[in-house]
Amino acid sequence: MTVQDLPAFNAFLNGTSALLVCTGLMLIRRGHATAHRYCMTAAVVVSGLFLVSYLYYHAHAGRTVFREPAEFRPVYLIILFTHTVLAVAIVPMVLTTVVLAWRRHWERHRRWARWTWPLWLYVSVTGVLIYLLLYHIFPQNPVS
Q1: How far, in Å, CA of 120 to CA of 143, rounded?
Q2: Rounded Cα distance, 69 and 136, in Å
Q3: CA gap 25, 97 in Å, rounded
Q4: Which of 30, 40, 63, 130 is the most buried (most CB within 10 A)?
Q5: pTM score, whole prediction
Q6: Quick one: DSSP state of residue 135?
Q7: pLDDT (tens digit, 9 = 90+) per residue, 5-57?
Q8: Cβ within 8 Å of residue 74, ≥6 positions away
Q9: In degrees rounded to 5, what are phi and psi of residue 34?
């Protein structure tokens, strides 16, 4: 795998994270706490791998700026802005939610998870969307 392959790999990790958090919610709603724990642990691991891969990519590759089509650029920038802000916010939220589960503080875990889950899903899904917009729907050239 080369540095140029990492955006696709990162989108795969984001998509996998989205599937895992959705599956985790379904499992806990059906009362499958052990399966929920495994699924959400996998989501944390996949998201951690994403973060490492993302940071590595941006340390070793040029930037890609969305320029064309100009009329879609404001929409892209709104998606990117909300994704970026929530991606920063979600890290301590996920860690707090996980620690509360480890400590078996179930009520507090549920209260945190009610906010963490939809934001985590949004960040994962918009990560895939940003990849699709930059590399497939409106392919952009990297900035040198």
Answers
A1: 29
A2: 13
A3: 14
A4: 40
A5: 0.94
A6: I
A7: 999 999 999 999 999 999 999 999 999 999 999 999 999 999 999 999 999 99
A8: none
A9: -65, -45
List beta partners, residue 142. 64
Round to whole Å and give the CA distance between 52 and 143.
Answer: 22
Can you tell me the distance from the alpha carbon of 9 to that of 119, in angstroms, rounded to the nearest whole number? 21
Task: State whether residue 142 is helix, strand or coil.
Answer: strand
Instruction: Outline where 30-105 has alpha helix (H).
Output: 33-60, 73-102
Residue type, 39: C
Q: Which two tokens stand for residue 78?
A: 């709104």
CA 95, CA 91: separation in Å to the nearest integer?
6
Look at residues 54, 22, 53, 58 and name the one whose alpha carbon lies nearest to residue 40.
22
H/E stretch holding 26: helix 6-29
